[in-house]
């Protein structure tokens, strides 16, 4: 019997927020890709930013979004909410 999925390339992404590398499949997903922002973030940043990213802490993210014409809409705390899963 042939064995599949035991070896092969791993997809390593770099978290836009903390700049750490993490695995984004196959089999193991330590973060997610935010399609509408064209960035990847690791699971710990995703968890830490569940109620939004503090814009002052991540000026490069604001710049990145502005360059792509993404509308920046801050929440009541003045933080930038992450798009929901799958967006
Ligand atoms: Zn991160």
Structural account:
This protein has 87 residues and is an alpha+beta fold. The chain has a domain of 56 residues. Helices cover 17% and strands 16% of the residues. The protein has 2 helices and 4 strands; from the N terminus they run E-E-E-E-H-H. It has a two-stranded antiparallel ribbon with strand order 1-2. It has a two-stranded antiparallel ribbon with strand order 3-4. The protein is elongated and about 45 Å long. 14% of the residues are buried. The structure holds zinc ion. Zinc ion (ZN) binds next to strand 4 and helix 1.
Q: Quick one: biggest sheet?
A: 2 strands, antiparallel
What level of helicity do the residues show? 10-25%
Q: What class do helices, strands and sheet pairing give?
A: alpha+beta
Q: Secondary-structure element sequence?
A: EEEEHH
Computed CA radius of gyration, to the nearest angstrom: 15 Å
| Total helical segments | 2
Bound molecules: zinc ion
- Shape field: elongated
**Beta-strand proportion:** 15-25%
Uncertain segments of ≥5 residues (pLDDT<50)?
none
CA(first)-CA(last) distance: 39 Å
Topology, number of strands: 4
Going across the major beta sheet, what is the strand order?
A: 1-2
Average pLDDT metric? 91
